[in-house]
Structure formats: structure tokens, C-alpha cells
Amino acid sequence: MTCVGCEQRLGTALRRLDGVREARADHRTGELNVSHDPDMADRAALEERVVTAGYEIAGTEDSA
């Protein structure tokens, strides 16, 4: 991500996925935070959506 437009594009793409409640991207840090129902949108679906939107996944971190 290189700009605010990227943040918006990625957030919108993820929020359109069933089960995603919130998705926020930050182009300055390269971080993406997603709140979702894992029964409806699992990690593989989220990662696929990120790649389909035209972005790469550099690192991942699970949170409880």
C-alpha cells in the first residue's frame, strides 16, 4: 500500500466479504486489521481477497 486510496480499496474489498465486520488498512505501517467471524470468513478467504485486490501479504500475526 502506498496511499490512502490503497487503504480504502483494500478495506472496501475485505468488508464486502461475508463475515467481515470491519477492516482497516494503514499505508504508513503496512498493517491490516480485520474483525471477522472465522466461521464465515476464514484466514484463507481473507488472504485470497487481499491478493485479489492486488496486494501482497508480507507477514502475519494472530491476535486473540
Task: Describe, in plain words, how this protein is organized in 3D.
With 64 residues, the protein is of the alpha+beta class. It has one domain (4-52): Alpha-Beta Plaits. It has helices at residues 4-15, 43-52, and strands spanning 20-26, 31-36. A two-stranded antiparallel sheet has the order 1-2. The mean pLDDT is 91.
The number of helices is: 2
Class in CATH? Answer: Alpha Beta
How are strands sequenced across the largest beta sheet?
A: 1-2
Poorly predicted parts = none
The CATH topology annotation reads as Alpha-Beta Plaits
Shape verdict: globular
CATH architecture: 2-Layer Sandwich
Short description:
By secondary structure, the protein is α+β, with helices and mostly antiparallel strands. 34% of the residues lie in helices and 20% in strands.
Task: Outline the secondary-structure elements.
Elements: H1 4-15, E1 20-26, E2 31-36, H2 43-52
Antiparallel strand pairs: 1-2
